[in-house]
Model the fold of this input.
Amino acid sequence: MDLSESRFLKFTIALFLFLRLSSASFAQGHASSQTERDTISLRYKLLTKGVFHAHARSFFMATDNQDALTDYYALAFGAGISYESYKIHGFQFGLTGFFIFNLESSDLSTIDPSAKSGNRYEIGLFDLRNPNNKSDLDRLEDLYLRYNWRKSKIEAGRFELNTPFINRQDGRMRGTIEEGVWAEFNEVKDIKIEAAWIHSISPRSTIEWYKVEDSYGVYPGGLNEFGNKSDYAGNISSDGVGLLGLTYFKKKVKIQLWEQFAENVFNTAMVRADLNLPAGSITTLQLGAMYVRQDALNYGGNEDQTKTYISKGSYSTVISTSAGLKHGNLEASLNYTHIPEGDRFLMPREWGREPFYTFMPRERNEGYADVNAAVVKLSYSFFNGKLKPSLGYGHFYLPDVKDVADNKYGLPSYNQLNADIRYSFAGYLKGLSMQMLMVYKGALGETYNESKYVFNKVNMVNWNVVVDYTF
Done:
């Protein structure tokens, strides 16, 4: 974030606070002495009909790596405020700003001498492009103008998307934000059509905004298919990314069709179907299936294939399935994903997390071919949903770490256990929620006694404690 934008963000949040306090005093003053004319003024309606929200978040994370490999920890705290105006002849505007502070941490710039790589998880709480930045961590997030028509809307500016390929990918302090144009059409019963053109992105774990073509490679890029360090960062040519989605939903079935067009780089299409079948008074059978096809466009972003994002002429497919049962407060599912041998499935990690049923927080299967993943998920809700513990356990069989053509990040086959517990308070503490997450990843594949295939990848435990307060 440059200095001018940082100042604008701080001015915006100060203005929000002023308006929020003015709102309360104005309402009190109006009750006793304001004239009827004030109630129809724009100021009055912006103050009393607009919606203010505030969010405070603390996040403690620690990673315990194998043996003598470097361990890390960090405690982050952040707060922000947002405002959304009331509808003025169908138009609305909104703003959001957020600050983050590194309250305490190990040295996140430390490179492990054996693995010769640095921190992977904790730095994601702050700014991964500047590990030593502990206080100047602010970002102007939402800044949009929206037009509402009946049940539909279109908005331009900065906003949050939640699609299969571009999404918040939360799990750190703040999520990914996009800039462009977004439209949602809801005029046909049981059908929703969504479309977007995105020209800039601010990825999770950063405070900067990037043109789409510059967002490739903000995160570490692994190895290219020739076994060299990926060199596509700053070398991709693309005008932006387009999205088109169609969702059909009834009580028992939901079908989604999605198209992602990354101009001059790749095209990804997805079809997904989810079915809920009643199997008793409190029991529902849940079935899901997904098919994804990805094709390179032109030269994949750069004619020089050593600097491109995806090799010319390459393509990949993914099949993901789920079978589960919901019985009262209990939910259980068995999930499977297969990526055939051949070309890697690629999805810029800067844009969002993968949509597969086998996804588990703290790891992804993007960047690999010849993948077989099986995951069991189990959760139960207590106290009317306020307390929700869950477990996930999976085996992820990947190509050998030295098969650079099919294994972009040198990750060995692994097993993963996630233990997650969440609690949402009620009554006086309504708006307060807590989460504790423990992630264990163990090696199933060969690591050749090389630390670079172990450090921050397998034989490790990642601990998380998150507290949120919204009002």
The longest helix spans residues 3-32. The CA atoms of residues 90 and 148 lie 5 Å apart. The chain is about 10% helix and 45% strand.
